Amino acid sequence: MKITTKQCALNLYKTIDNKSLKEIKINIKNFVKFLIKKNQLTKIDQIIEQFIKIWDFEKKIVETEIISTKELDIKTEKSLKKYIKDLTQAKEIIIKQKIDQSLLGGVIIKYRDKILDGSLRNSLRELKENMIK
């Protein structure tokens, strides 16, 4: 029976969650041995990617990309962090900022599989569409 990368990641999560550092080291070593035995070590990158998704979901961590025309000031970043935290019920928000001069203004927020487009470019596009109707 073939084991999926998601199953491997879930098993890894279960073997290290709430364990001591010593137990984690032993369990990871055994996990790698298992992957070698099952000839699955080549899929380690996909397994790690799935593991991070599972970890973040279980620990209520939301990784967020915020795209703006310039770097966010501390007050704006705090405000956006609180907004996303309230929206997602997350315990922790990790923000990665990206600068895109083509936005003209505003921000685009990407988290999980969602995109909140508050850019000036998008607002102008929506205004134009509404005026045409």
* Secondary-structure element series: HHHEHEEEH
Number of helices: 5
Estimate nothing, just give the exact number of structural domains: 2
> Based on helices, strands and strand pairing, what is the structural class?
alpha+beta
Level of helix content? 40-55%
Count of strand segments: 4
Strand content: 15-25%
Low-confidence runs of at least 5 consecutive residues: none
Main sheet attributes: strand count, strand direction, barrel closure = 4 strands, mixed
Give a quick set of tags describing it.
alpha+beta, 5 helices, 133 residues, 4 strands
Task: Summarize the model shown.
The protein is α+β, with helices and mostly antiparallel strands. It contains 5 helices and 4 strands, in the order αααβαβββα.
What would your notes on this structure say?
There is one protein chain. With 133 residues, the chain is of the alpha+beta class. The protein folds into 2 domains: 54 residues, no CATH class; 72 residues, no CATH class. The protein is built from 5 helices and 4 strands. The chain has a 4-stranded mixed beta sheet. The longest helix has 17 residues. The chain is elongated, with a radius of gyration of 20 Å. The termini are far apart. The model has no long low-confidence stretch (mean pLDDT 92).
